[in-house]
Amino acid sequence: MGFGIKPGMRDLETGLRLSSSTNCLYELQPPPSPTTPTLVLSNSGKTLLVSNSSKSLVLSNSGKRFDKKKYVKQVTGRHNDTELHLAAQRGDLTAVRQILGEIDAQMVGTLSGADFDAEVAEIRSAIVNEVNELGETALFTAAEKGHLAIVKELLQYSTKEGMTMKNRSGFDPFHIAASQGHEAIVQVLLEHDPGLSKTVGQSNATPIISAATRGHIGVVNVLLSTDSSSLEISRSNGKNALHLAARQGHVEIVKALLRKDPQLARRNDKKGQTALHMAVKGTSCEVVKLLLKADPALVMLPDRFGNTALHIATRKRRAEVSIDCQCISITSGHKCECIV
């Protein structure tokens, strides 16, 4: 005894649906993608359909569509990383080269000569610039972990968009390398594109601000020697690299910043506070001394609320700064002589 299929109902075995208007079977269409793939114009003028971590169809230089999963396996993991991401994370240069080299092998027989080379280059670029669910490329991963050799390898195939793409936290590969203190990687990326030094992250933080805050003197020196104009950029709260280095007590960084631009000592944040106001909140009397040598009048400058550095120091119970610049650490009970 057979069973009829009512109009509009699905045939579960065949995956077909009966149209209620025509009584004809038609094939079920997959639901539309929840995200729209990004269109990128390649150097050749052809459009690449680059996926956003989970979409795999790419339009290559020849106009053919190919599945990136055929070339780089998408690993089911915490952040939907590809094998290339994981190899970059491990610092496994051999694996990175093997993954990229397999593209050539799998393309053999499809084209020849210059067409083959162009096709492989387009596919390899799409693979290298693929992002995981955090919006991070394999280059970002290598830059964050400090794997210089991997960074150099991936730079050959990275696009401008891939190099400047920010992850969910607002960092791009250059900024995360500066923030982590990877001086050699910062140098290599700057040689590739000097304009990277002016990138900004969340709250308008620049790479030199991030490096200065974390105490990475090597990175700060590289950035200052490349383009010191980034010192003019402040965070959204008005604090610059000197404010934050002074607050953390990074003596060598404070010295480097003041050598490059002594006027930084006079710059105010949105509260009207100078780097000296920030320094007395910390515990480094040496930083206080450096700032007062740069500009002795700083000790008399009030913020928007009328507080001088001495007022702030007393209220915060960090240090007592007198006119002769003798400072005493109240919290630790240790006296440090900072007489100018």
TrEMBL record:
Source domain of life: Eukaryota
Name the UniProt record assigns to this protein: Uncharacterized protein
UniProt keyword list: ANK repeat, Cell membrane, Membrane, Repeat, Stress response, Transmembrane, Transmembrane helix
Record's keyword annotation contains Phosphoprotein: no
Classification of source organism: Eukaryota, Viridiplantae, Streptophyta, Embryophyta, Tracheophyta
SUPFAM superfamilies per the UniProt record, alphabetical: Ankyrin repeat
Family annotation (SMART domains): ANK
ANK repeat intervals: 169-192, 237-269, 271-293
PANTHER family cross-referenced by the UniProt entry: ANKYRIN REPEAT FAMILY PROTEIN, PROTEIN PHOSPHATASE 1 REGULATORY SUBUNIT
Signal sequence interval, chain numbering: none
Native species: Cucumis sativus (Cucumber)
Record flagged with keyword Cell wall biogenesis/degradation: no
